[in-house]
Design goal:
This protein is α/β, with parallel strands linked by helices. It has a five-stranded parallel sheet with strand order 3-4-5-6-7. Strands 1-2 form a two-stranded antiparallel sheet. Strand 3, helix 1 and strand 4 form a beta-alpha-beta unit. Helix 4 packs parallel to helix 6. The radius of gyration is 14 Å and the shape is globular.
Length: 146
């Protein structure tokens, strides 16, 4: 499997999970054979990005490459800025969260709620992809209706 310039050793990917995929867990998963491990989501809102919790989520010291950071939000400009911010801090792949079903995320039109607004998804993708020189991926779910 390839993502941009990165060839993964296999197709075993550890999905980003809030409260689970912290740096030690990602390192452990990679040590035991995961081809890729994605960070917990980091809010695109600049006011939330500088909390101790978010700074810990953005610490990738000693991680096996490629380093993948998931960003979450609903504002195309904020997401583009968050992508640049994380690339400047070592992210080699940016993943956009369009799959989180948590109420607190969906209530602000982020996560899986984005799948209800195709034009907003398009605007987010244009801005984020245009903002960084690294690959951009999406975490999605099947959608809102059968």
């Amino acid at each position: 499997m390839r993502i941009g310039p990165y060839t993964l050793p296999n197709n075993l990917v550890v999905a980003p999970m809030a409260g689970v995929t912290d740096r030690p867990f990602r390192q452990l998963c990679k040590r035991f054979g995961a081809g890729l491990a994605v960070s917990e989501m980091i809010a695109s809102n600049p006011g939330l990005r500088e909390t101790a919790k978010s700074r810990a989520r953005g610490d990738h010291a000693g991680e096996v490459e490629p380093i993948v950071v998931q960003i979450a939000g609903a504002d195309p400009g904020e997401l583009a800025h968050a992508a640049r911010y994380n690339v400047d801090r070592g992210a080699q792949i940016i993943d956009i969260n369009m799959g989180c079903p948590a109420k607190k995320v969906c209530n602000v039109a982020a996560g899986s709620a984005l799948l209800r607004n195709e034009s907003l998804v398009g605007a987010i993708l244009e801005r984020v992809v245009g903002a960084v020189e690294v690959p951009v991926t999406l975490k999605i779910r099947t959608g809102w209706s059968r």
